[in-house]
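Handover notes (outgoing to incoming on-call)

Open items:
1. ABC transporter permease: sequence verified, structure written out, both below. Nothing else pending on this one.
2. Nothing else urgent.
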Amino acid sequence: MKNASSLLIVLLFLSVWEIGARLANQAFILPSPIQIAIKLWELKEVLIINHLPVTLLTIIIGLAISIVSGTAIAVWMFSNPSVRKALYPILIASQMIPVIALAPIFVLWFGYTIWSKVAVAVLITFFPITVNTFDGLASGKKETEELLLTMGATKKDIFLKYSIPTALPHFFSGLKVAVTLSVIGAAIGEWLGAQAGLGYFSRRMMTQFDGAAVFAPIFVLTVVGIVLFVCVTFIEKRLVKRRNIN
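ABC transporter permease structure tokens:
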């Protein structure tokens, strides 16, 4: 029933968009969904073969770096209060800087290589993973930890068998936010400086006033974000279900 309601809302939105675009009759500014679909079909090989792999590689590398470094720093802050007091304000401050302002600086540092785009993706995905993982680790009850200590468990046992399972749902919550933001980060990086990628292609089509071709790679980026979100949700359900069974 929920899926049917969502589908109905999407169809209604597309219908209003289609009618509005036809009434406006300015495809270079507001192409209709049908025009975008036709253009997407015409450009499918260029987008999927030439540009999608570049964007996917940026997303995957950026997410991998954020997961490894973000989780490590979250564990470090959890295990050391002094580190937490020193790093937590810096993490908050890092999110106050507009990514759009730093992206050109990354281009100056790394050039038009993939690493300037990866840097943007890391900057935008690092925070939700780190903070959510830390909050999950810190959400464990002190009473439970003290009880485990009195039963002979070591701090290592408590961390591995209690703190990590407790933090797992929080980690995946942060990761689900991060995977969608990673798509945005990769696109922003490609918009501001790239030689390939879906964001780069969209910007290039804008200079040619081809509205449908601008929206076509955006649609592909949307699909990529949805697929990544579904994959993370699937993995989360499997791991959390296994944890609950155990």
